[in-house]
Amino acid sequence: MGFQFNHVGGGTKTRRPITLHMKYNPDCDSPLCHLLSDSDPSIDQQLSLQEIQAYIEAENMRLEKEPCQFSSKEIIIRVEYKYCPNLSIIDTPGLVAPAPGRKNRALQAQARAVESLVRAKMQHKEFIILCLEDCNDWSNATTRRVVMQIDPELSRTVVVATKLDTKIPQFARSSDVEVFLSPPASTLDGFMLGDSPFFTSVPSGRVGLGHESVYRSNDEFKQAISLREMEDVAALEEKLGRSLTKQERSRIGVSSLRLFLEELLQKRYMDSVPLIIPLLEKEHRSSTRKLTDINQELSTLDEVKLKEKGRAFHDLFLTKLSLLLKGTVIAPPDKFGETLQDERVNGGAFVGSDGLQFPHKLIPNAGMRLYGGAQYHRAMAEFRFVVGGTKCPPITREEIVNACGVEDIHDGTNYSRTACVIAVAKARDTFEPFLHQLGNRLLHILKRLLPISVHLLQKDGEYLSGHEVFLRRVASAFNNFAESTERSCREKCMEDLVSTTRYVTWSLHNKNRAGLRQFLDSFGGSEQSATGGNSVAASLSQELSSLSMASDKQDSKPRPDVKLGHLASGNDSSGTVQATETRLADLLDSTLWNRRLAPSSERIVYALVQQIFHGIREYFLASVELKFNCFLLMPVVDKLPALLREDLESAFQDDLDNVFDITNLRHSLGQQKREVEIELRRIKRLKEKFRQIHEQLISHEVMC
Question: Ranges for the Dynamin-type G domain (predicted)?
Answer without folding.
Answer: 1-274
